[in-house]
Amino acid sequence: GAVVSQHPSRVICKSGTSVKIECRSLDFQATTMFWYRQFPKQSLMLMATSNEGSKATYEQGVEKDKFLINHASLTLSTLTVTSAHPEDSSFYICSARDRKTLPGNTIYFGEGSWLTVV
Amino acid sequence: KQEVTQIPAALSVPEGENLVLNCSFTDSAIYNLQWFRQDPGKGLTSLLLIQSSQREQTSGRLNASLDKSSGRSTLYIAASQPGDSATYLCAVRPGAGSYQLTFGKGTKLSVIP
Predict the structure, then answer these.
(1) The sheet that has B62-67: what strands, in order across it?
(2) pLDDT digits (tens, 9 = 90+) for B57-113
(3) Distance, in angstroms, between A94 CA and closest chain B CA?
(4) Is the pLDDT of residue A2 over 60?
(5) Closest partner residue to A111 among B42, B89, B99, by Cβ?
(6) Distance between CA A36 and CA A50 in Å, rounded?
(7) How far apart are the CA of A67 and the nearest CA of chain B, in angstroms?
(8) Three-state secondary structure string covering B33-80
(9) Which end of chain A has the smaller Cβ count within 10 Å, N or C?
(10) Is residue A58 less than 8 Å (CB to CB) from chain B?
């Protein structure tokens, strides 16, 4: 079946540095991908919608300049956490929409990335 | 705005017991509802997906039901095993043309050997 791959699965970075997380659809083209964040004991919350070839759409309260999203190809979206701080430590997970699955298009999730900022 | 609530937040049962996890949502206009499993330090594993037109879905020892009109879903786990220990998440998708899911906070299940 379709697979969405996320890399890295775990990353530790120093405060003030930037870290990039990749989300790839392995056997389908994903014009739309989604980035979620989950803090401990909280729900997964949608951060932004990543659209291939255009700017991402961010949810209210999510800083565009801090969480840079690039969807440069039909199979890859990247989330870059810039100038990371300890409060950015969280579980980040992406999902991708498979347009060829009907009806309604199937959504596949990656395995997530655990970010720890020290 | 859709809100998804999962009760209980945590559950501990002895091995072999049957159990039910609950999920409720405030807006009954959903396209589908999905149950996920999340292991500590791991990602999401999709367990069952129920379309709005369906009443239930089964996979092995798992059975999920959906009562859209009342805004409720249950996940039934039969003959629980220690390997079932994980956090179970419920998520709803609002419409066929909408792909963002709204998640509950999850129920943390511990199955005691």
Answers:
(1) B4-7, B19-25, B72-77, B62-67, B56-59
(2) 999 999 999 999 999 999 999 999 999 999 999 999 998 888 889 999 999 999 999
(3) 10
(4) no
(5) B42
(6) 11
(7) 18
(8) EEEEEECCCCCEEEEEEEECCCCEEEECCEEEEEECCCCEEEEEECCC
(9) N
(10) no
Residue pair B90/B103 in contact by the 8 Å Cβ criterion: yes
Rounded Cα–Cα distance for residues B97 and A104 (Å): 7
Contact A44 B91 (CB under 8 A): yes
pLDDT tens by residue, B5-22: 999 999 999 999 999 999
Q: Which residues pair with B39 in a beta bridge?
A: none
Chain A residues within an 8 Å CB radius of B102: 43
Task: Tell me the nearest-neighbour CA distance from A113 into chain B, angstroms.
Answer: 8
Q: What is the DSSP letter of A42?
A: S
